[in-house]
Design goal:
heterotrimer, A mainly alpha (about 300), B mainly alpha (about 525), C alpha/beta (about 300), A: about 300 residues, two-stranded antiparallel ribbon, 4 strands, about 75% helix, globular, C: about 300 residues, alpha/beta, Rossmann fold, 4-stranded antiparallel sheet, 10 strands
């Protein structure tokens, strides 16, 4: 039981990261129907931006933890989306209306480019960072085994849930959200009724990148070490999460993220760490075989 | 970050300075935003953690350059050609000269150049040249007047004709070149190695082309079958002492079986779902290879994989069991390049088999059904074509060729480990297919030479290699979204030449009525 | 026109199709005779295309039975067959409302693909074809001849080597019919074949459909909005509205059926009715709001 609770907490933390990245995938997929393969790199850039901010703050002597966290988060969410915006502007927008595979290839190309760009500018070595938030509650104890809920994990889960709420409100309550949902349904029609489609798509990338950058921030403070390659696996897992939840569905992305996180945590906890990726993908395959559009995806009746 | 969409030259060459300023400032701001952290700061490893170092000079230079280049681009767009040509041209000449001197003398010239790194300077130089050329082309077009300027459609038709002719004649020419390649004077061991590598990717590209180009199934885990082929051969050869040629068919069959195994449950999925599942499958295979230590030797890989023989004659200095070797049999001097030449021909033959197979099967019902399936699955079903079986055959046959290529890879390297079979390999193979022009056999060759051959030759630029690779993928796709040599030859014609109407690249003007 | 002793080729019994809570087809039964043209008409959203999709295996009907009595092979229960097996075994062909050609393949290739199953057997599932056995070459030659026959019929022979996607709209419609005929069907289902055609093209279409009925001797099932086409060539008309059958009979009977007239008055397209009848009933009550159709 104690072990179970510990894995549950770990899984939720990991799931928060996947869920936040998955939202970006699912939104972009919903609006322009492409897999933004470079999205994982945006997450990685977010993690690097956070790291650099913490270092700058450290050098500037700002050591009050809440302020440091707030500033790092704000700066990351401000700067990383510029990459998301540029990505769409440079690599995807000129290809709208081209064969879908073309955009997929530029996405993979951008992913390789961004990885190497960061490697070149920041070095290939691991970047370790001191933990920022320490301590936590002791939830329960059995013999030597202590279930710990750290302040860090509380912070992460609160942050994620808060962001997801804000984000859902944006999608459902604002003009931008309406424009976005309109573009998802029919871009041509949306343009006809006066929605600026280009701007809406750009903003989608910006929002997706902002959430991914928060995921990067969380990754950094949770695991304390990053490198230029973290975007790849996290990106793939997050995309898996988006598909698992039903691509195009926002609640699906969050659900899928948490599910993948939990599957990994429990698999590692109870079976083998080595095969946790196999478990995640295996469950994806199973879900898709029985529910081809994912857990919360709309069942698509074939239009003939 | 420039706006790459081509615009028609403005009829009235008046410059809207306000727009110019706005666009340039915006570009500069975006570049500033992009660079202020990633370029401006670096987390440097020091003892006991990380320290921050700043490079704000580079940020400033990059931002100013972005402003200027964007402004020049806007000027070209609004019809100001000569000043742009002169300024950019002069700067380009100067930079080229300095860089040339740097390269020739080895003397550091960075004091006179904006960046400390020659490659970054070279990139800037290229951008200047591109700008000058663009302006010059526009200038020429404007001098010839609008009548002479080709419309977009004419340009496309011209490109299509070129691609068609090129595809027709380049095939035999390239094959002839490939046949004599090892004996060309400049070809040394390095170039042979590069050619073997390129040829491996050509074969993989042709194999994947069956799946992606013909059948239209987006497979992001193709490398898994490559791995299955490689490990099948490696394990058979090292455990049962079997030779390459005996194991080759078996490796193909193994890979094809894996194709069936994976394809059966997932080929009902459409488009991107299939993509992610195949990607997942690729990762699963890799993780299993990595962790099933007893069977695959895990991350340490398998070494001592035997080389192929020439009809039983080993290409070694001295045969292990006192038997005859290749050079003894043919009474030649032993040379280590022989082995590589031999490997080169082996992969050439394997690749050509793949190619001939594909060309042949395209003209068979199954091949036509693949293409039809790519075009419209629903229509296929309405014609009684079983989509699942048809897709499965494409998947399995594609996998089989990957298996062949995999066993070749194993025998060439003599050592394999899971590290060789990562997702990036799948991405590269897919890029070869898509960049070449989906379904185009010759396109695969051209793309493989560009994507695999060139980076190998420029290995000196180690650190920029993958950066350029990713960048090139993006740029080529932006330049030709349908691929470099997108051209489809019909599998059958009713009119075999003669005066009958040719199929139109041009659209039918209007139907005269039946 | 019609022969009273024609055998029922297709029997639709109590067909019902529900999508979630939406009833697209509600207990529809009708019969289509061999060597006759049966038209299904009805306002938009009446469930016509859904009937087709059930018949050709794209949807699994919620309830009901679809029996095809093949003149040579005997009865087939279509609702129990996988989609691709309906054309393959029961020889039912169809076209689509939004033309579905293999647009990057040539016109001829489109027609050859339609003969896939026969050619597959001839090529011994690719093996004989790979080594170029004469059995396959002659089968391919025959396939080209058949394609040629249909190309002549739909007047596309000159453009046989064009990409299908480059054909003008009317020619694409004809090609799709030719392609469907290349599977040698006993029942040809046409989903709005006259949509988007000009009067002259639609006149030619009538001739083509009549010749398919008379020369090939097969049954045709037709969804059509163009009443000129329907009234001129149909032997038998089934009228659907809101997924229910409201009328069934010869063109003359249907034209006179008050239920049909009422159904059509809800539509904005008044030209679909003979104007005299429309005027008669113009004062009658308009149609109640429909609960969202399936988008036929």
């Amino acid at each position: 039981m104690e072990y179970f609770v510990q894995q549950l907490i770990n899984g939720l933390t990991l799931g928060a990261i996947y869920g936040l990245i998955a939202i970006g995938y699912t939104m972009v997929y919903g609006i322009i129907g492409m897999i933004n393969f470079a999205h994982g790199e945006i997450f990685m850039i977010g993690a690097f931006t956070s790291l650099l901010t913490f270092l700058v703050l450290g050098a500037a002597g700002i050591s009050w933890v809440p302020l440091a966290l707030f500033l790092a988060l704000a700066i990351t969410m401000l700067l990383t989306p510029i990459y998301g915006w540029t990505l769409e502007r440079v690599a995807y927008r000129p290809l709208r209306g081209s064969p879908r595979l073309a955009a997929l290839i530029t996405a993979i190309g951008m992913s390789i480019f961004l990885q190497n760009y960061v490697q070149l500018l920041q070095g290939a070595r691991n970047k370790p960072m001191q933990p920022i938030i320490r301590g936590g509650f002791e939830l329960m104890r059995e013999g030597d085994f202590v279930v710990l809920l750290s302040y860090l994990q509380i912070f992460i889960i609160l942050l994620t849930v808060g962001l997801m709420i804000v984000f859902t409100l944006i999608i459902h309550r604002t003009a931008l959200g309406r424009a976005q949902r309109a573009c998802e349904q029919d871009r041509g029609m949306a343009a006809l009724v006066g929605i600026n489609v280009d701007r809406t798509i750009s903003l989608t990338f910006v929002m997706g990148a902002a959430l991914a950058s928060v995921a990067g921030f969380i990754f950094l403070i949770n695991y304390g070490v990053i490198d230029f390659f973290i975007g790849f696996l996290a990106g793939i897992k997050a995309f898996t999460a988006a598909v698992l939840g039903g691509i195009g569905s926002l609640p699906g992305a969050m659900l899928g993220g948490f599910l993948i996180g939990l599957i990994e945590a429990f698999w590692s906890g109870y079976f083998t760490v080595e095969y946790k990726d196999v478990a995640a993908f295996g469950i994806l395959v199973l879900v898709l075989i029985f529910r081809p559009t994912g857990l919360l995806g709309k069942p698509d009746i074939e239009k003939v | 970050m420039g706006d790459t969409t081509a615009r028609t030259p403005a009829a009235n060459p008046g410059v809207d300075w306000a727009a110019l300023a706005k666009e340039s400032v915006l570009t500069a701001l975006v570049v500033l935003g992009l660079s202020v952290y990633m370029i401006g700061l670096k987390a440097e490893d020091v003892t006991g953690g990380l320290a921050i170092i700043t490079r704000y000079d580079s940020v400033a230079i990059v931002t100013v350059l972005a402003f200027l280049l964007r402004a020049a681009l806007v000027l070209v767009r609004s019809g100001v050609y000569l000043p742009v040509i002169l300024v950019c041209g002069a700067l380009a000449v100067a930079m080229t000269g300095l860089l040339g001197a740097w390269w020739a003398t080895g003397e550091e010239m960075s004091a006179y150049l904006p960046f400390g790194d020659p490659v970054v300077n070279g990139l800037l130089d290229l951008m200047l040249i591109a700008l000058a050329v663009r302006a010059a082309l526009r200038l020429r077009a404007s001098l010839h007047g609008p009548a002479k300027a080709m419309t977009q459609e004419e340009k496309e038709a011209k490109a299509a004709r070129f691609v068609k002719n090129f595809s027709m004649f380049a095939g035999p020419a390239l094959l002839a070149f490939a046949l004599i390649y090892p004996f060309l004077p400049f070809v040394d061991r390095f170039y042979l190695d590069v050619a073997v590598l390129v040829m491996t990717y050509v074969m993989l590209g042709w194999g994947l082309n069956i799946v992606v180009g013909l059948a239209g199934l987006l497979d992001l885990g193709y490398v898994a079958f490559y791995a299955v082929g490689a490990y099948s051969y490696a394990l058979l050869a090292t455990n049962f002492d079997l030779g390459f040629w005996v194991c080759l068919p078996f490796a193909g069959v193994m890979a094809a079986s894996f194709g069936l195994l994976l394809g059966f449950p997932v080929l009902r999925l459409r488009g991107d779902y299939l993509a992610i599942v195949t990607l997942g499958f690729g990762e699963i295979i890799r993780v299993i290879l990595l962790n099933w230590y007893q069977f695959t030797n895990g991350p340490d890989g398998i070494s001592g994989i035997p080389k192929p023989t020439f009809f039983g004659l080993p290409l070694v200095r001295r045969a292990a069991d006192g038997g005859e070797t290749f050079h003894q049999f043919f009474n030649m001097q032993y040379s280590t390049t022989d082995r590589i030449v031999f490997l080169y021909y082996v992969i050439l033959i394997l690749a050509m088999v793949t190619n001939l197979f594909t060309m042949r099967i395209r003209k068979l019902p199954i091949g036509r059904a693949w293409e039809a399936l790519r075009e419209d699955e629903i229509a296929c079903r309405s014609l009684g074509i079983n989509p699942t079986n048809t897709k499965l055959t494409a998947f399995a046959i594609g996998a089989m060729f990957a298996g062949f290529a995999g066993s070749f890879f194993a025998t060439r390297q003599g050592f394999i480990s899971p590290e060789s079979f990562t997702f990036i390999e799948s991405a590269v193979i897919l890029a070869v297919v898509v960049l070449g022009g989906m379904g185009s056999q010759i396109g695969v060759v051209v793309a493989a030479v560009i994507l695999i051959g060139l980076p190998e030759i420029f290995r000196d630029l180690q650190q920029y290699r993958m950066l350029a690779f990713g960048g090139a993928m993006v740029l080529i796709m932006l330049w030709r979204p349908a691929g470099l040599l997108a051209f489809r030859e019909p599998t059958i014609r009713l009119w075999k030449g003669g005066g009958k109407p040719e199929p139109g690249n041009e659209k039918a003007a209007a139907e005269a009525g039946p | 026109m019609s022969d009273t002793a024609t055998a029922p080729l297709l029997a639709v019994d109590h067909l019902t199709m529900r999508f979630g809570g939406l009833v697209a087809i509600d207990d529809v039964s009708f019969v289509a005779a061999d060597r006759q043209i049966t038209a299904i008409i009805g306002p938009n959203g009446a469930g016509k295309t859904t009937v087709f999709n059930c018949l050709t295996g794209f949807y699994q009907p919620t309830e009901g039975r679809l029996t095809l009595t093949h003149p040579r092979k005997g009865p087939f229960l279509l609702e129990r067959m996988d989609g691709y097996r309906i054309p393959q075994e029961a020889d039912v062909a169809r076209t689509f409302q939004n033309i579905r050609l293999f647009s990057q393949m040539t016109v001829l290739e489109n027609l050859i693909v339609a003969q896939h199953n026969r050619l597959m057997r001839a090529s011994a599932f690719t093996l004989a074809g790979l080594v170029g056995l004469s059995r396959y070459t002659s089968a391919e030659k025959k396939a080209v001849e058949k394609a040629r026959y249909w190309l002549d019929k739909v007047n596309l022979t000159d453009r046989a080597d064009w990409d299908a996607g480059h054909l003008p709209y009317g020619a694409q419609r004809r090609l799709e019919i030719a392609r469907a005929m290349c599977i040698d069907p006993v029942l040809l289902c046409l989903d709005e074949p006259a949509a988007g055609l000009n009067p002259r093209e639609s006149h030619d279409l009538n001739r083509l459909l009549l010749s398919i009925r008379d020369e090939e001797g097969i049954g045709l099932l037709l969804i059509e909005h163009d009443m000129n086409v329907v009234m001129e060539i149909s032997d038998h008309i089934v009228v659907l509205d809101y997924g229910r059958k409201i009328s069934d009979g010869t063109p003359a009977e249907v034209r006179a059926d008050p239920a049909v007239i009422r159904a059509y008055l809800g539509e904005e397209e008044d030209e679909e009715l003979p104007p005299a009848v429309a005027e008669d009933l113009a004062a009658e009550k308009t149609h109640p709001e429909r609960p969202g159709g399936e988008g036929a």
